[in-house]
Every structure is written in C-alpha cells, then in structure tokens.
Prior knowledge:
Layout: E1 15-18, E2 23-27, E3 35-48, E4 51-69, E5 73-86, E6 96-109, E7 114-116, E8 125-126, E9 136-137, E10 141-150, H1 153-156, E11 162-178, E12 181-194, E13 205-219, E14 224-238, E15 243-256, H2 262-276, E16 281-285, E17 289-295, H3 308-322, E18 329-334, H4 341-361, E19 370-374, H5 387-393, E20 395-401
Parallel strand pairs: 6-19, 18-19
Antiparallel strand pairs: 1-2, 2-9, 3-4, 3-15, 4-5, 5-6, 6-7, 8-10, 10-11, 11-12, 12-13, 13-14, 14-15, 16-17, 17-20, 18-20
Amino acid sequence: MAMKLNFFVSFLIFSIFPLSVNAERFVYKYTPGEKYRILSLVYEDVYIDRQLSHTSEIVNRIAIEVTKADDKTATNKAIFQTGEKALFTNEKHGGFQWDKDYESIFEQDKFGYMTIDKQYFMPVVRNVPVFPDRNLKEGDTWSAEGHEMHDFRASFGIEEPYRIPFTANYKFLGEKEWKNKRYPAFSISYHIFTEPSAVSGDVYPVCIMGASDQIVYWDSELGKPEAYTENFRMIFELSNGKTFEFRGTAEAEVLKSEYMDKQDVLEQINRDIEDLGVKDAHAEITDKGISISLENIQFKSDSAYLMPSEKEKLDKIGAILKRFHDRDILVAGHTAYSGSEASMLQLSEERAGAVAEHLIEHDVRAPERIIIRGYGGAKPIADNNTEAGRVKNRRVEITILEN
Length: 403
C-alpha cells in the first residue's frame, strides 16, 4: 500500500515589521493579485511493520494566488501538486511523477488563523505558524493549537479529511543564516500522541505518534518566508494490526512568480519553432501556461526509447525552454487509443519520463523543476479511427507553467 503524504507543507503569506534592533512584530500581509509558489523537497523512509519498505524523494509544488484582501484577512486560491520518486527501485525517471492535484480556497487572518471549508484536503498543516498580538524579542516563546488534515481515501478508504490535532511551540531565534544570507528566524516544534476514535473506512488509525521540528527563515524586505527546514517522524498503528512509519527531512523555498505575458511568450515560442525548423510542433496558451505540443514524436514501437532523430528535436526545444529558465515545466505524455487503459497510461508516463530525462541531462532544468505526467489515450486531439489522427494523438506536451 503506497502512502504519499506531504505531511508538513506550510505555505503562508507573511510579513515582518521591524520595531527595533531587539524586537519584531510578526503579522501576515496580503497583496491582492499576488502570485507565488512554494517548492519543497522531502526525503522520506517508509517502514511497514517496522521493516524498511522503500525510500522516496517527494516534491511538493504549491501555486498560490491572493484573490482578495484587506487589512485584516485575505482569500487565497491554491493548487497543490505532489510528485514522487521511489529511490530504491530499478526504474529511471527524468522527473517526479505527478501524483495528484488538489485545489483549495481559504481565508487567513493577519495572525495566521485559517477559515476553510471542510471539503478541502489541503493544506495539510493548518494554523501553523500563528503569531501572538505582541512584540517579540529574541528568545521569546509562544504556543498555539494547530492540526494536520490528511487525505486517507486511497490508503485507508476514509472519505472525509482526517484531522490530527496538536499544540505547536514556537521560539524566536533572532537572525539565522540560510544560503549565505541572514534572515529573522523562528523554530516550530510539535509532538503528537493520540488514540483516536474509530471512523468509517476500510481500516483506520488506532494510535498516532509523531513529531516535527522546523526552522523558518524570513525575508523581511519581501515580507514572506524565504525557506524552511524540517525533521519529522510519524507512526500510524492501524485497526488491522499493521504499522506504517514515515521518517525524513524536508526543505522548502518560496519562489516569486513574475508576470507572464502569455500572448507575447506564445508568439516568441512559435517564431522560434519555425526558425529552428522543428517539425510537428506548435505552442498554444492553456490555463497552466504555454504548452508546446510535439506531435508524432518517435519512440521504438511500444517502448519509451527515444529515436535518435527525436533527440535533435528535443535539443532545439530545450534551447527555447532555457530562455524561460525561471519557470517550472510539466512534461505530459499521450498515446493513441490502443490496448488497455493501464498499458496506455504506463507507456505515456514512461515516454514523458524519457523526454524529461533528456532535458535534465542537457541542463534544461533541474530534476525538481520538472514534473512528469501520463494521460494514456484519455485526451485525444484527433480521430483515433484514422492513421493521421493516431499520429497526432501520439504526442508529448511540454508546458511552461505560469505559476
């Protein structure tokens, strides 16, 4: 049973207002229309019944837009995307396999307390961090109630978001160094031990134990968290007698999204495609950004082995992508409708992975800046009953993400 739990994603819009050399006042600050994203990397060991099952590298990508704000609260619209690599396998993937997309809308007041409808599974960690309505000096501490909210539908058959409460303890650390720069920082620590009541599901937790220890670094000028680091451990004892344990570390950074003039970028890319002589390729505007469609991309039959001629094509596309180096990309594979849905999905994922691997090897993007996804034959753009249509449907789309 695979569990892909991005436990400790905390993505908040903050500002620090300096009061003096020795005191700070932490409050949230909101700018309507602002867009940014958080990129976190998690290295996690998964134990089943106390035996190491596998080690995973997980990327959590959160795109946030502040849709409305005043001096007391703000409304945030967010898209959460999680990808994972199993490190103890023989498979080779160029990027992180995109597992799930979640959308969420929530309000947050200036001290960090959230109001969110019960239908939303994300964010996982809520009311963390929150701040007291007072000035803080280095060494000051405070505590507040928070909770985690988990999606256990696939793992345990629990349909509702699953709530795990805790008390978070904070300490203002003064200035700390992150990547050769100094930032105001504070620690967050919480421990969990609970024996929850039974809930409706295939199985359910009967005992939950865990701990999280984080350090958050702030950019005072931008009024946002610059980064955070974390060590965590969570143990679930289940009603069927099995035990799942997750141990690991996490690191995250907040990335500002500059405005993308989609029409201008589209014209640039299509002009470059024509000038470079890239055949069977064109770009178009999508809701996620600008998508470059590579139709009739050639692999060995029923495999993800790229034909040599296609590598030259990808090198030209890579040169275009490098011009937009500050944006993440999504590589999506599509097949013509042939065979079982499971086989089509697997083949499309493997082909997207092969394209991503080529881009990574040629320094187009770092692995954590590429997400791969397979759609099988679920999104045809032409008639699968004709050979010309099937050629168009066998494609890879590379999307330059707006946020």
